[in-house]
Structure formats: structure tokens, C-alpha cells
TrEMBL record:
Residues 6-102 form the Pyrroline-5-carboxylate reductase catalytic N-terminal domain. Residues 226-245 are annotated as: Disordered. NADP(+) binds at L10, G11, A12, G13, S14, M15, A73, M74, K75, P76. This is Pyrroline-5-carboxylate reductase. One of its GO terms (biological process) is L-proline biosynthetic process. Transmembrane segments: none annotated. Its EC number is 1.5.1.2. Belongs to the pyrroline-5-carboxylate reductase family.
Length: 280
């Protein structure tokens, strides 16, 4: 059972805290079965201990043999050193998880003993409010029980999607960078309302509620976005006029290109990161 697992966060930054907060709030695992450590910032560890009741320890004091899931949550540049320290301390039945940009299961496997279970995870910034779209990709040696346990654990941040690691770049284009596209859309919708004399705060709430409602409509039934769009688009009506303006200004193409460009850059950054880590 997941509730019996012990989880260690190697790194104590904002992502680690987002996950810890979700786990503690949802009572997925008891707080005293959560461990966090970092290289030197003892004040940060004390803050997390006081706030969440978890066990904040130095690396030397971490009970490696009792841990079920190790989560790499430091800066990516520190991953190789962290994996080197773990190599002789973990067993094949323990799972090493990366939430770091550019740190793949292959990279982890190359730095750990043969047969080690690894999982790569990619959340987005909505994890801070437990509404992330999070991707999960298991390594070559990871069994399905471990995948299911980690998927359940990550549910503290939102919804989890099991994907092939080769799909991580396009996932980044869709979900990793996705919130920014909607913020950009909201920014321009808000600007249009303010330019026509509406209160800025009211417009912001109207736009946010509109996007929230549209998202809930998609999630509450099996209809495709195109079908729902057609249902609210009366011939020669206001929505039809707005959509026609989007088409004339290549709005659809712009959205697709945003996803493709973000995915392309994700691949480039991952390759750059992997190259830098190998040569360092």
C-alpha cells in the first residue's frame, strides 16, 4: 500500500515543497514517513519540518535502506552527483524518481547500478494549487506496481498521465508550457474589456471564470472541443463573428505553432542538459 511507503526528497526547493504540501494535505502518506534533505541549507530544512511535520535530515542521517521512493528535486546540475551518492545505497526494489528538466530515465540508469527502477516525472506550475497536468514515464526496469504507487503519489499535485518518454517534449509543449498560453490569452481578453471601459479586476475574474467553465465542460463529458464549439456557434451570431476573426488572423495556427515550438525547444534543452552533464 502507498500509505506504508517512505519517501525521501533529495532537494528542498519549491517543487519539493509543492509535492510535500499536497501529500500532507491529502494525507496520502503520514508526515513522519516523508524525509527531505539538501546539501547545506539547514534553515530551509527546519522551515519544512516546522511547517509540515516531516523529517528534515542531513544526507548522512537519511535512512537509505528504509526509503521506498527517492525523488530527485535539486537543481538539474546536481543530479549526477546525487545519483553517484545513491548508486551504492539503493536496492533494485527501491525507485529513483526525477522531477528535473532534462534528467531522463536513461540518464538515471547510466548513473545507477544495472536493474535500478527509475521514473521520470514532469509536472507543471499548477502543481502549486494541486491542479497540475503531470506526465509519468517509467524506466526500462520499473515494474507496474511501482508505476501505480508513484502515479497515486503524484495525484497530490493534480491529474497524472502515463506516457512514453519519447512523448515528453510534446507533453512539455502542451502542458508544461501550456498555462502560459492561457495566461497570454487571458491577458489579451482582459485588455479588450478594459479598453471598452470595464473594471480591470472584474474583467480578470470574468475571463478566468469563462476559461474555468470551458475546461469543466470538456472534463465533464466525452464531447470533443470542436463539437462544443459548434454547439455555441450560431450562424451569423456573435461567436461566429469572433471565431471568424481568429481564423482570419491565423489564431488556430498560432496555437499549434506555440505547442510545436515549445516542444522543439524542450528537445534542444534536454539535449543540451544531457551533454553538459556528461562532460562536467
Amino acid at each position: 500500500m502507498l500509505r506504508e511507503k517512505r519517501v525521501a526528497f533529495l532537494g528542498a526547493g519549491s517543487m519539493a515543497e509543492s509535492m510535500i504540501a499536497g501529500i500532507v494535505q491529502k494525507e496520502i502518506i503520514p508526515a513522519d514517513q516523508l524525509y527531505v534533505t539538501n546539501n547545506s541549507n539547514q534553515m530551509r530544512l527546519q522551515q519544512l519540518n516546522a511547517k509540515y511535520g516531516i523529517q528534515a535530515l542531513t544526507k548522512d542521517a537519511l535512512p537509505y535502506g528504509e526509503i521506498d521512493l527517492f525523488i530527485l528535486a535539486m537543481k538539474p546540475q546536481g543530479a549526477a552527483d546525487a545519483l553517484g551518492e545513491l548508486k551504492d545505497k539503493v536496492r533494485p526494489d527501491q525507485v529513483v524518481i526525477s522531477v528535473l528538466a532534462g534528467i531522463s530515465t536513461e540518464f538515471m540508469e547510466d548513473h545507477l547500478k544495472d536493474g535500478q527502477q527509475t521514473i521520470r516525472v514532469m509536472p507543471n506550475t499548477s502543481s502549486m494549487i494541486q491542479e497540475s497536468a503531470t506526465a509519468l514515464s517509467p524506466g526500462r526496469h520499473t515494474d507496474m506496481d511501482s508505476v501505480l504507487h508513484v502515479k497515486e503519489l503524484l495525484s497530490c499535485m493534480g491529474k497524472v498521465f502515463l506516457i512514453e518518454e519519447s512523448q515528453m517534449d510534446i507533453f512539455t509543449g502542451l502542458a508544461g508550457s501550456g498555462p502560459a498560453y492561457f495566461y497570454y490569452l487571458m491577458e489579451h481578453m482582459e485588455k479588450a474589456g478594459v479598453e471598452k471601459g470595464m473594471d480591470e479586476n472584474m474583467v480578470r475574474e470574468i475571463v478566468a471564470q469563462t476559461i474555468l467553465g470551458a475546461a469543466k465542460m470538456i472534463l465533464s463529458n466525452d464531447e470533443a472541443p470542436s463539437s462544443l464549439r459548434e454547439k455555441v456557434t450560431s450562424p451569423n451570431g456573435t461567436t461566429a463573428s469572433g471565431l471568424e476573426a481568429l481564423r482570419k488572423n491565423n489564431g488556430g495556427k498560432a496555437i499549434s505553432e506555440a505547442v510545436y515550438h515549445a516542444a522543439k525547444r524542450s528537445k534542444e534543452l534536454n539535449e543540451e542538459m544531457a551533454g553538459a552533464l556528461v562532460t562536467s
